[in-house]
Amino acid sequence: MSNPSAEAQQTKALLEKNFAAYKLAQLELSKGIQARTQLTSQYNENESVIEELNRLDDDANVFKLIGPALIRQDLVEAKSNVSKRIEYIKNEMDRSDSQLKSLESKNKDKEAELIKLQKKLQSLAQGP
């Protein structure tokens, strides 16, 4: 049989290693949530822009800010650009959602492993 003290030390080291990995995974999840929130904000902003563009008359002047200058832009072109941007953001949101699901799943697995190791360490500390 192995030495209970050595096994406890080994389990404690593994627990610390897994806890560090869990903290990193939590940080990665947090960054993913922040990115998803930013995408949602951009999506809402672009939806508002397309609504405003749809309210304009066909002969209305539309300008695009490029650097410090306002450049005249065709209304149809402006609607097309914003629609493409909305489609791109939707795709990024879908990608972000699947990435977040994966990260959440990994975090749950890491958390379950931590709990298992903690219980093992407690049982070793209590002795036979």
**SS content category:** mainly alpha
Number of strands: 2
Total individual domains: 1
The arrangement of helices and strands along the chain is HEEH
* Separation, N- and C-terminal Cα atoms: 13 Å
- Major beta sheet, strand line-up: 1-2
- What is the overall silhouette? rod-shaped
Q: In percent, how helical is the residue content?
A: over 70%
Percent of residues in β-strands? 5-15%
Give unreliable regions as ranges.
Answer: none
List strands and helices in order, with pairings.
Layout: H1 4-55, E1 62-66, E2 69-73, H2 75-126
Antiparallel strand pairs: 1-2
Organism: Dunaliella salina (Green alga)
Protein name: Prefoldin
Keywords: Chaperone, Coiled coil
Short description:
The chain has 128 residues and is mainly α.
